[in-house]
Design goal:
625 residues; mainly alpha; Serine Threonine Protein Phosphatase 5, Tetratricopeptide repeat; 5 domains; 77% helix; signal
Length: 625
């Protein structure tokens, strides 16, 4: 008995599951478009909700009839609310009709006719469709199971009545265990069951699967098709048709995302991309493409917002935000560069009006921003310095006229430089810098020729330090500066009354300007003076002081060799503590010596120590005979 009830219940359930779904629309004759449209007037005043239903019906049957389409386009929000009301009342089929029609309008017309369906309405419909499509599938299955339960109960009731008419013996016989399985009863039931019903539990599952597959294949809506294939894949993962359907419908969803992306409807595009990204059953390459497209759509959205902003500060900040989020997207870097100039111009306007704090605010915003070009930063720093010092910013013409009319070369030069720094695109300042730099150079030369070397160097330096001065003028100033510094040192050496100071200044000059022969000549002449001083101390028996002078000469550069040789001889005498005789003393000693050898040696020594005294040369010759 227990087995009988089980079999009967299963058979009834399979029968219900395999029963074709009842058509949603009756098979009565379809009305013409005019009949549907004319029927609207009958209910227009009394039942606004019915009006929407009729227009939806007209659009579904005659989508090319502009009367129905135009009404829907003009009443999108009303239809959306109508669908929401039906959804809350569990009238899901009606709700789906409204949502589907709105999505259909968007998918078919948004690309060619602009944005017909606003983004927020479209997204609401898409999300509602996802929920209701899945609910629709589950409800069908629940309804079939409920119908199966009712049929099973009725069949069991009929069977009980039949058994009630049997005798007790027959009933006991029927229920008596046997070695054979209850095949007799099963065969009897199966013989009376249609072939389409004689299926296992797997067969019933196949029926539901096929129904779901057909529904997915026949859906005219990309979103619904995608959701149905996903649901099918989740329920029947081993059926490749659902897996392939997920892949193909994911491509459609991806293309819809691209379509909205290209139209500039970035939120809708991201919504489509996200639906692909979040589904593991979508092939990896499609999900990766959707992920890349999503990132690009988000970047495009921010870039478009920045581009379209009418406010300089907002535009600048949006470009900065975009750069921080997408540092490899050069559009944001370029946007920062261009909008920084707009910010600078705003700051300059406030600066010219004397509104220093506001101007500084704009300048600081630029200085604190990333990716601002260096030349812009340098320019802003100059404006900021002026603003901080409360100096009104002159216009180009005001500053040019002030520079041009100045009677002072230095002031004129400085004003032209300032103008070039503040307004680098105004060629008048560049030309003014060049012409006034020549005037400054001439002033430097004037002071140079007068021997006022410090003043000359000061003028030369002012030219050298300004990059906006033409290169050839700066190079001339650099050469003149070096010459002025050399002239200053040479003049100091020449004018020094002290032999040691003069000697040292010539040495310093030679080391700084080795190609300037004046210092080499000065070393040569002043070395003789140093030698004479050493000799004087030597003659007095002040050997240490004498050696100090000798060493100074020996350690100096550019001293002639003959002078070095002479100093070495004097140094040997001083180191041996031998008093240096004067020319006359040494000559008389040599001349009065009674010994030929001593006479000869003294004359030689005299010649070495006093080579310019001809008496020693003659004495060497006569004593050598």
């Amino acid at each position: 008995m227990k087995m009988l009830r089980k079999i009967i219940s299963l058979v009834c359930l399979f029968s219900i599951l395999l029963t074709p779904l009842a058509p949603l629309v009756s098979a009565e004759e379809v009305k013409s478009a005019d009949e549907i449209y004319n029927g609207i007037a009958k209910v227009e005043e009394t039942n606004p909700s019915q009006v929407i239903a009729i227009y939806l019906e007209g659009y579904e049957l005659y989508p090319e009839d502009e009367r129905f389409e135009n009404y829907i386009i003009e009443h999108l929000e009303e239809i959306l609310n109508w669908s929401k009301d039906n959804e809350q009342s569990n009238q899901w089929e009606e709700a789906l009709r409204g949502y589907k029609v709105i999505i259909d309008i968007a998918e078919n017309h948004n690309e060619n006719n602009g944005i017909i369906v606003p983004e927020e309405i479209l997204i609401q419909c898409q999300k509602a469709m996802e929920v209701l499509s899945l609910a629709d599938i589950n409800d069908n299955l629940v309804e079939e199971v409920e119908q199966s339960d009712e049929s099973s109960e009725k069949l069991l009731e009929d069977t009980s009545k039949e058994q009630g008419e049997q005798s007790v013996e027959e009933i006991e016989k029927t229920n008596k265990p046997t070695d054979a399985p209850e095949s007799a009863l099963e065969e009897e039931v199966l013989e009376k069951t249609p072939a389409s019903v004689t299926m296992s539990n797997k067969g019933g599952d196949d029926s539901a699967k096929e129904e779901l597959l057909i529904k997915a294949q026949n859906s005219p809506y990309a979103s619904e098709k995608f959701n149905l294939y996903i649901k099918g894949y989740e329920l029947y993962p081993s059926d490749d048709r659902f897996r392939e359907g997920v892949a193909s419908s994911a491509v459609n969803i991806l293309n819809l995302g691209k379509k909205y992306h290209n139209q500039g409807n970035f939120d809708a595009a991201v919504n489509y991309y996200d639906r692909i990204i979040d589904v593991d059953s979508v092939p990896k390459e499609i999900r990766e493409t959707a992920q890349k497209n999503k990132a690009l759509a988000q970047a495009d959205k921010m870039y478009t917002q920045a581009q379209n902003s009418p406010y300089a500060s907002e535009k600048f900040n949006l470009y900065i935000q975009g750069y921080e989020l997408y540092p490899n997207d050069n559009r944001f870097k370029e946007g920062i560069s261009s909008s920084a100039i707009n910010m600078l111009n705003l700051g300059k306007n406030y600066h010219k009006q004397g509104n220093f704090d506001t101007a500084i605010g704009y300048y600081n915003a630029i200085l604190n921003a990333p990716a601002v070009p260096k030349e812009t930063i340098d320019m802003v720093n100059r404006y900021q310095e002026l603003a901080k010092s409360k100096e009104i910013l002159l216009t180009e013409n005001e500053l040019y006229n002030k520079a041009n009319n100045s009677p002072y070369a230095s002031e004129k030069f400085n004003l032209y430089i300032k103008g070039y720094e503040l307004y680098p695109n105004d060629s008048r300042f560049k030309e003014g810098v060049a012409s006034s730099a020549v005037s400054i150079l001439n002033l430097g030369k004037k002071y140079h020729n007068q021997g006022n070397f410090d003043a000359a160097v000061n003028y030369y330096d002012r030219i050298i330090d300004v990059d906006s001065v033409p290169k050839e003028i700066r190079e001339t100033a650099q050469k003149n500066k070096a010459l002025a510094q050399a002239d200053k040192m040479y003049t100091q050496a020449q004018n020094s009354p002290y032999a040691s100071e003069k000697f040292n200044l010539y040495i310093q000059g030679y080391e700084l300007y080795p190609n300037d022969n004046r210092f080499k000549e000065g070393i040569s002449s002043s070395a003789i003076n140093m030698l004479n001083l050493g000799k004087n101390y030597h003659k007095q028996g002040n050997f240490d002081t004498a050696i100090g002078y000798y060493n100074a000469i020996l350690n100096a550069p550019a001293v002639p060799k003959e002078t070095i040789d002479m100093v070495n001889r004097y140094q040997e005498l001083a180191k041996s503590k031998e008093i240096l005789l004067t020319e006359n003393e040494l000559y008389n000693k040599a001349n009065n010596s009674p010994y030929a050898s001593e006479k000869f040696n003294l004359y030689i020594k005299g010649y070495e120590l006093y080579p310019n005294d001809s008496r020693f040369k003659e004495g060497v010759a006569s004593s050598a005979v």
